[in-house]
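Entry 12.
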Amino acid sequence: MRSKFTDPILHCLIIEDSEFDQEMMRRAVKAARDKILVKTVTTLQAARKALMEGPVSFILLDNSLPDGKGADFAVELAQYPKLARIPIIIASDWPSPFMWDKANEAGVKFVVSKSDFKPELIRKVLNIS
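Predicted 3D structure (tokens):
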């Protein structure tokens, strides 16, 4: 099956307030595929702005951010057809059953603990080998 992400350059939006975790996600993105441009923001407000400014192929999202919960943000995005199509991976220090329910409601592709976050998840979301 061919990936729906055939554009030579993909755009990843990382929404994470920890510099350490930002770097871990950037490394996973680079290991997953060449030609991915990464934009990193530290708040949900900044993420909303980034989504208005340009294309986003997929989102890597922390659940605990200074201005809200990532799972709630995913539910918010799911209300808009154009944004609802953007694949999301939530990476959290402590995935909870409540977070899983919210993520499932929003159509989030994966919810993982940060220690289990790997390039393979990105490849699965993008449907690439």
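Annotation: The longest helix spans residues 19-32. Strands lie at 10-15, 36-41, 58-62, 64-65, 68-69, 88-92, 110-113.
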